[in-house]
Write a structure and sequence with these properties.
The complex is a heterotrimer of chains A (about 600), B (about 375) and C (about 375). Chain A is an all-alpha fold. Helices cover about 75% and strands about 0% of the residues of chain A. In chain A, strands 1-2 form a two-stranded antiparallel sheet. In chain A, helix 6 packs across helix 15 (about 310-355) and helix 20 runs antiparallel to helix 23 (about 510-525). The relative contact order of chain A is 0.12. Chain B has about 375 residues and is α/β, with parallel strands linked by helices. Chain B folds into two domains: about 1-20 and about 30-140 and about 270-335, D-Maltodextrin-Binding Protein, domain 2 (3-Layer(aba) Sandwich), CATH 3.40.190; about 140-270 and about 345-365, D-Maltodextrin-Binding Protein, domain 2 (3-Layer(aba) Sandwich). In chain B, strands 3, 4, 5, 6, 7, 8, 9 and 10 form an eight-stranded mixed sheet that branches. Chain B has a two-stranded parallel sheet with strand order 1-2. In chain B, helix 3 runs antiparallel to helix 12 and helix 7 (about 185-195) crosses helix 8. Chain B is globular and about 60 Å long. Chain C has two domains: about 15-240, 3-Layer(aba) Sandwich (Rossmann fold), CATH 3.40.50.300; about 250-365, Beta Barrel (OB fold (Dihydrolipoamide Acetyltransferase, E2P)). A six-stranded mixed sheet of chain C has the order 6-7-8-3-9-10, sandwiched between helices. A six-stranded mixed sheet of chain C has the order 13-12-11-15-21-14. In chain C, strands 16-20-17-18-19 form a five-stranded antiparallel sheet, with no helix packed on it. The longest helix of chain C has 18 residues, at about 180-195. Classes of the chains: A mainly alpha (about 600), B alpha/beta (about 375), C alpha+beta (about 375).
Chain lengths: ~600, ~375, ~375
């Protein structure tokens, strides 16, 4: 009982000061701008007319429409999770087979869906999916269908939109654990008589299940917060809980009702976190000893359910099937990866085309092309200052979140201390708590501090939503990190600070770059927080865009998406350059440091060609 | 000090004279209030063509005349506005609030009383068909009307909500505003009007009848639209043939050459108001701004730049007839429409939530099939 | 022993596995160049070489995980090249065992049997036998992570043998074990080999392991076979300077050809006046080569006290019980000698000694 209870004072005293210092900055900021305000909001939902009560929640649970909304939300989240897994698994598998540097480039491309406002992205889907859209036109042209298929304003459309948004998250969540699976196991399976397909199903798939569970949980939980996409692409009934919360906050300004619903949603999230904490914290647990599958009997062989005669009869069939799959494997993998990339990038292509439109409305294909919307963008001081403001705040926030989250990730991966798992879950939770609720909470926390509507407020708020990405990426990066290099450097006389600055950080450059990028996008893309903490001198770009879109959709916002896309391609190039440099440096560092120290067996897994 | 005294004097004068003085356009400039001041005023912008029209009609001239700097602040939501006021740091000095949300805010003491002392004589009483209130001053009229595919229905167009519901005569998909917006989408009124409820008996809303009416149209509804632009885009993309849409969106699309028709018949007339949040940093400048924006000549400039109706009826005297005809509050147009009754929407039965909140709950129940 | 070690060893008819003209290129880099060798049925062959010598590449090609750039690999006359790994029927023990962490020990061992659609009762029986073979009968229900390194190693061995493959490949199987365990496992591996009689190919960089386990050894370096023979052949008659140095220890001293008669060649060690006459049979260099290396194992060097200025000087002595290691300086060279301890009782550092190279135990190599 007392093993990991943080309430035990002796335990707390036992935490080394260095860990406290690593974790404290993240804890302080999370406490101030997130935990305490959120707790207040949750507490508020337990009051009605000034009296403590459960009736707010009970009323909700008792209401048939709320149950219906919750069920629909869960169903949609399950379906979205299923399809992101279906698409994301082969993609992540494909990426995990690549050299890390090449994979990093493709992973960067995978982030494209985050680059443009959800509203313009939805329009791009309309261009692609509408009755006269590109997909229907191609289907008609090929002759597969006689009349346009309804691909949107129904569940299909909602799913297409939502899966595209969640796919990157799934791919990232699967990629890291897959990379850790020892590939020689697959060779072993083959040398023992399994073909590639059966080696995959018998060995790789079971070993990747913890990652599947972790990724699915993340996607599922954050899918619970969807509302804009189903509202724009879905049909008449696709109303989800986040939309109900959003209506209560934005239109009715009834925060108590919203926080009652939000509290119940949070409860589900927390419950899921607690139940699945093992899987979610897989990234930081020591050796995730995979649970043996199936029932065991005394001799360690699993008991088969299928009658032996049937199994024996079926075996040649399965064997043939897996031979076919082995043949199909590579083409299928390439196809799956290509499809994923196309799926992720296609709406962006539409957006780029629209940005060069000459029309005042969104019409696709544009009647004429011009740079007018670029000119309009660059000649409007308000757009420019919003762009500058967003870039500045999201940039500084990215730095801040990396500064506070990276040491915490170090502590999580390399130290053992009570409350470790709780801390990890806390740090990644902003990913799944509905943003609009964070928005309200943050506003009430900021005003007394006098930082609402100031760059400081934005930097803190953006840093908050950037931290989960930094933590996840650093945990992955550090798990892969060859610690012998650090020990070698220390053995050669480097102080811990020197080791950090000359070995650890240089080798972590790719992780740092991706962490900064993701944290930046998390803030840059935010609408909900900005809605609440904007001020006369603090207006971020998405708020400008939102205002522009409310009443009229012009190619103006496509320009913003296109500029971001161009920026990403710039980062792409930079990343390429940095990793080239780092590749050289790593080889150099390894040579320098390892000469003189005996290689430890297994220290360089996969170093053999 | 001088300013203050003068203001007091004029305020009483205006109040006293208001009752007797004929609203005379000619006399207005003669007794124009001096609104000069210092500092700034943070005003809700709205963005796009709307923000641009405000800029031409109000922001720039106000700044030029008074020396007060106008800061154009992007729009938020009622929720973010209320949160800001409650937190003690409202996002605007001058907010633009939908008529349906005014009462709720005012009731909770979140809006400062309007200081009509800064108004030119006669302006306050010229507001029609919605009068200026204690805590708000109507800013513009717009109407939720019937939009349709003008290519498809070139000769026989759907004119009223009954026609919208008549899918045999007018084929094709339908779209209405989401009912999750409560009154703001006009969907409940449209449903009742389509069902034959006379305009003067619309309120109180008969929920059962409204949803029964919606039940009938639901199979034809492709989707409930979620933004003003979407309503028109759906027609432009031929996803639907008939639906509800805001008049400004329809005329905007027509100006772009899109073949979209509109009918004012049974249009649901809605309005936004200026208001000053409690605790706003520049309350006095805000009052001055509202007074400025309430002048008929400024409202006329506004209406010349965007097809939203002036709230100060005297602005019509300054508009060319062919322009005035396009506005939702042009007398012949206005009479075809129903002014949305925000009094009803803000009222609450005993022990119940306000009707605007009830609408959302009823809507969710309907979607869930739990009605 | 021929002089040209690059010629393929003539493969006797009974060779079970044959590699002919095997080369492997990675882009421009050549990992293995034109290797040919044969393994007889039931034989334990060691591929010995430093890292990067190409031994693992060769093993992976036999297993089917690397396709040859050129050349052929046959088992019992049938070419393997087109066969995917799972159809080759070759057992393999991987460097770090590659036990499936999500399966019990028994499941791991049953894996190849299941792939072969064996009856369940037979699977259970064979698994039991395999566990007994490696003395792990009680461990079937454990997960691999619950076993020690040595036990995991034995499971890997049992798993690779349970389907009775014609050939077993062992990729540095003892590399991850500590020294004591490694020696135990060597004994056990040898016993198992004798018991099951399976043809085995062992890859190792540890010459001691190769010498003690293998029937024959192929020494690889730089992607080529340097020498292929029995441990005794390799130790006693290294084909070149590399093998001489890699197998056991050798002093390699640059020398110049002085003259030759019908039975021997005499060379003078560079920078000294010492002349050694090496029998013709011990010469591993072309007659045209004048710059040579004289190879002599430490134990083949005789020391006698001397007052001569031109002799060698003792730098250091290391007492090993029965033997005494002596490090000497001879002109510019350091020479290691190993003499019976009783003969070196009087040796001290700084003392001059006379060095004697036993002609029959000295060899001449081409200087590289």
């Amino acid at each position: 009982m007392e093993t990991a209870a943080p309430s035990n004072p002796r335990r707390i005293r036992a935490i080394a000061p260095v860990i406290v210092w690593m974790v404290l900055p993240a804890l302080v900021i999370f406490g101030a701008v997130y935990l305490v305000p959120l707790a207040k909001l949750v507490a508020a939902s337990f009051f009605r007319d000034g009296a403590l009560t459960l009736s707010n929640h009970l009323d909700l649970i008792g209401s048939a429409s709320f149950r219906d909304i919750v069920l629909r939300t869960f169903k949609m989240a399950v379906v979205v999770t299923f399809f992101t897994l279906l698409l994301g698994y082969p993609a992540a598998y494909f990426l995990s087979r690549l050299a890390p540097r090449r994979a990093a480039l493709l992973l960067l491309l995978v982030t494209v869906p985050y680059l443009t406002s959800i509203l313009i992205r939805s329009y791009a889907w309309i261009v692609l999916l509408g009755p006269t859209g590109l997909i229907n036109r191609s289907l008609l042209w090929v002759g597969i269908v006689d009349e346009p298929v309804r691909l949107m304003f129904n569940m299909t459309g909602a799913y297409i939109g939502m899966v595209q948004i969640q796919l990157p998250l799934m791919i990232f969540a699967l990629y890291a654990p897959m990379q850790r699976i020892d590939r020689t196991l697959l060779n072993a399976a083959q040398s023992l008589g399994g073909n590639r397909a059966s080696a995959f199903f018998q060995v790789f798939l079971p070993l990747s299940l913890p990652g599947v569970l972790g990724g699915s949980t993340l996607v599922f939980l954050s899918s619970l917060g969807f509302y804009v996409t189903p509202a724009l692409l879905g049909g008449t009934g696709d109303y989800m809980i986040a939309q109900a919360i959003q209506v209560r906050v934005s239109n009715l300004a009834d925060y108590d009702a919203a926080s009652a619903q939000g509290t119940l949603l949070l409860l589900v999230v927390v419950l899921a976190f607690v139940l699945l904490r093992r899987r979610l914290t897989d990234g930081i647990s020591e050796s995730a000893a995979p649970a043996a599958t199936g029932q065991r009997v005394g001799n360690g062989l699993r008991t088969e359910r299928m009658p032996e005669a049937v199994a024996q009869r079926l075996h040649p069939f399965f064997r043939a099937l897996s031979e076919v799959l082995t043949w199909l494997r590579l083409p299928a993998l390439y196809l799956a990866m290509a499809f994923c990339l196309l799926y992720l990038v296609a709406p962006m292509v539409v957006v780029v085309v629209l940005a060069f439109s000459d029309a005042a409305y969104l019409t696709f294909p544009p009647p004429d092309y011009s740079l007018r919307w670029f000119r309009a963008f660059f000649s409007d001081q308000r757009w420019l200052s919003a762009l500058w403001f967003s870039t500045l705040c999201a940039g500084l926030a990215a730095v801040l979140s990396t500064l506070i989250a990276a040491p915490a990730a170090f502590a999580l991966v390399r130290r053992r201390f009570p409350g470790r798992l709780t801390l990890y879950l806390l740090l990644i939770s902003p990913l799944v708590v509905p943003r609009i609720i964070i928005g309200v909470a943050v506003l009430f926390a900021f005003v007394p501090l006098g930082i609402s509507g100031t760059p400081i407020g934005f930097i803190l708020a953006y840093a908050l939503v950037g931290v989960p990405f930094v933590v996840v990426l650093f945990v992955t990066g550090l798990r892969r990190f060859d610690r012998d290099l650090e020990m070698a450097a220390a053995g050669l006389g480097a102080t811990p600070a020197r080791v950090l600055s000359t070995v650890t950080l240089p080798l972590l450059v790719p992780t740092i770059v991706s962490a900064l990028l993701f944290a930046f996008i998390a803030g840059f893309d935010d609408v909900e927080l900005g809605l609440f903490i904007s001020g006369p001198n603090a207006t971020p770009l998405p708020i400008r865009m939102l205002e522009n879109i409310r009443l009229e959709i012009s190619p103006q916002i496509a320009v913003v998406g296109t500029l971001l896309f161009a920026a990403l391609i710039g980062v792409f190039g930079l990343h390429l350059g940095v990793s080239r440099l780092r590749g050289l440096r790593r080889r150099f560092a390894k040579k320098m440091i390892l000469s003189g120290t005996p290689p430890r067996p297994g220290a360089e897994r996969g170093a053999k060609p | 000090m001088i300013d203050l005294n003068r203001r007091k004097f004029l305020a009483t004068g205006a109040a006293a004279g208001g009752a007797f003085a004929l609203p005379s356009l000619l006399s207005a400039p003669a007794i124009a209030q001096s609104l000069s001041g210092t500092g700034q005023v943070v005003v809700y912008d709205g963005g796009g063509a709307w923000g641009e029209a405000k800029n031409i009609a109000y922001f720039e001239p106000f700044q030029a005349e008074t020396g007060i700097e106008v800061i154009r602040q992007p729009s938020g939501t009622v929720g973010s506005l209320r949160a800001g006021i409650l937190a003690g740091q409202p996002a605007y000095d001058v907010a633009n609030i939908g008529g349906s949300s005014i009462d709720g805010l005012a009731r909770d003491g979140l809006l400062a009383p309007i200081d009509y002392g800064w108004f030119n004589a006669g302006d306050r009483d010229a507001f029609n068909p919605v009068a200026a209130g204690e805590h708000f001053v109507p800013a513009l009229f717009y109407s939720l009307i019937i939009g349709y595919d003008a290519d498809r229905f070139s000769s026989n167009a759907p004119l009223n909500w009954g026609d919208v519901w008549d899918v045999d005569v007018f084929g094709g998909g339908r779209s209405l505003a989401t009912g999750a917006w409560g009154p703001d989408g006009g969907t409940f009124e449209a449903a009742l009007l389509a069902d034959g409820v006379p305009p003067d008996q619309l309120y109180p809303i008969d929920w059962d009848r409204a949803f029964r009416s919606l039940d009938r149209l639901k199979p034809e509804i492709i989707k409930f639209w979620e933004s003003g632009a979407e309503a028109v885009q759906l027609i432009a993309d031929r996803q639907i043939s008939v639906g509800s849409a805001w008049n400004g969106r329809i005329s905007g699309a027509q100006e772009q050459g899109l073949k979209i028709g509109g009918s004012w018949d049974q249009g649901i007339l809605q309005w936004d108001a200026w208001a000053v949040p409690t605790g706003a940093a520049n309350t006095e400048n805000a009052m001055k701004f509202i007074a400025f924006a309430s002048r008929p000549e400024n409202q006329a400039v506004f209406a010349q730049n965007i097809l939203y109706g002036p709230t100060n009826a005297r602005a019509f005297d300054l508009l060319a007839p062919d322009r005035a005809m396009l506005l939702p509050t042009y007398p012949t147009q206005r009479d075809k429409q129903v002014v949305q009754n925000y009094g009803f929407w803000n009222a609450a039965d005993a022990g119940q939530e306000a009707n605007y909140a009830r609408a959302v709950i009823e809507w969710e129940r309907w979607l869930a099939g739990a009605r | 022993m021929t002089l040209d070690t690059h010629q393929p060893t003539p493969a006797p008819a009974e060779d079970y596995l044959k590699v002919t003209g095997f080369s492997k290129f990675y882009g421009e880099t050549c990992a293995v160049r034109d290797v040919s060798l044969g393994v007889r049925e039931g034989e334990l062959l060691a591929l010995l070489g430093p890292s990067g010598s190409g031994k693992s590449t060769l093993l992976m090609a036999i297993a089917g995980f690397e396709a040859p750039s050129s050349g052929d690999i046959t088992i019992a006359g049938r070419s393997l090249v087109e066969l995917p790994p799972h159809r080759r029927g070759i057992g393999m023990v991987f460097q770090r065992y590659a036990l499936f962490p999500h399966m019990t020990v028994a499941e791991n061992i049953a894996y190849p049997l299941r792939r072969r659609n064996m009856a369940r009762r037979e699977i259970a029986q064979r698994v039991q036998e395999a566990l007994e073979l490696v003395r792990l009968d009680a461990f079937g229900a454990r997960l691999p992570t619950q076993l020690s390194g040595g036990q995991q190693q034995r499971v890997a061995l049992a798993r690779a043998l349970v389907f009775q493959p014609g050939l077993l490949l062992l990729d540095e199987p003892l590399g991850a074990l500590d020294r004591k365990l490694r020696q135990e496992m060597q004994t056990e591996l040898k016993q198992i080999h004798q018991r099951v009689g399976t043809t085995m190919i062992l890859v190792t960089h540890d010459q001691e392991e190769a010498l003690s386990l293998a029937d024959r050894i192929a020494v690889l370096d730089g992607g080529r076979i340097q020498q292929f023979g029995t441990p005794a052949e390799l130790y006693d008659s290294p084909a070149n300077a590399f093998v001489a140095d890699f197998i056991g220890e050798s002093n390699l001293i640059p020398a110049k050809r002085m003259g030759a008669d019908g039975t021997s060649v005499s060379v003078k060690l560079n920078g000294t006046d010492i002349v050694v006459s090496v029998p013709q049979a011990n010469i591993c260099a072309a007659p045209s080569d004048d710059s040579l290396l004289l190879g002599a194992r430490p134990e083949d060097i005789a020391l006698s006290p001397s007052a001569s200025e031109t002799g060698a000087v003792v730098v250091q002595t290391n007492y090993l019980g029965a033997m005494l290691n002596v490090l000497l300086e001879l002109g510019p060279y350091q020479i290691r000698a190993r003499i019976p301890a009783r003969l070196g009782t009087g040796l001290t550092a700084g003392q001059s000694v006379e060095i004697g190279f036993t002609p029959e135990a000295s060899r001449l190599y081409t200087a590289t």
